[in-house]
Amino acid sequence: MNDILTVSGLNKSYGDFSLKDVTFSLPEGCITGFIGVNGAGKTTLLRCISKLYPVDNDIIFYNENDINKDRKYLEYIGYLPQLFGMYKDLSVKDMMLMMANLKNIDLNNSTAEIKRVIKTVNLTDKLNSKVSSLSGGMIRRLGIAQSLLGNPKIIIFDEPTAGLDPEERLRFKNIVSEISKNTIVIISTHIVEDIEAICDTIVIMNKGKLITSGSSSDIRNIAKSKVYIVPENDVLNLPNNCQIEKHLELNGQKCARVLSNLKLKYIQDSPNIEDGYICAIKN
Predict the structure, then answer these.
(1) How far apart are CA 22 and CA 18, in angstroms?
(2) What pTM does this model have?
(3) More exposed terminus of the chain, fewer Cβ within 10 Å: N or C?
(4) Sheet of strand 4-14, all strands in order from the earlier edge strand to the far edge
């Protein structure tokens, strides 16, 4: 039987953020990306799943067990928070030893396990360095490493590629592809390219609600026949509800790529994930 994480009718308020009747199921072996603007409720949702925020009974289940009643649930979780950079006075090794201890990883195995995950994120040469000496991108990679400790069954990444250079973003994508085979992987981000490149399922959130979900193809199709290439000179004459996605030059002519729910007389362009995302949250 494959593992499955289920959220059923989750309502949660925290400060100005609220989740409203959030329901979904995530199976083992599936990489799910949650995308939405800041304030959409993504981080609040992840904190509920990771038990940082309390939820009522009979709302979140792992393998049909209520997470509030499963004493081992937290041992199944690997979590990279949106902000990570604690224990700056410790060395990388000592900080990872502390995290391994919090995850109840056997002391006899922890050193080898730490070396494994540190190598995975390309930080082996920083093992004895203080956390405070690391760059922002390195700290992000260290955060990814600690989330992988102990091969958790559910791994949650909140804005995992923030601060990573292109090479390390590619490394992260390869890591996720490798670990996802026997894991439930959840990624929250506002970077559309990350979602498109590695996620099996994309979930669009807005104002605390799940708007829609589907494959990359499903999300692109939301904007089917709604993307146009418009000559720059005609842009000012477009209807008010048209949205300019970007300016470009095509065959020597300055143009704008425009998203419109109204049918326009111009050449259509193939939609991408971002087009589908914008159409979904604007409807």
Answers:
(1) 10
(2) 0.91
(3) N
(4) 17-27, 4-14, 60-62, 65-66
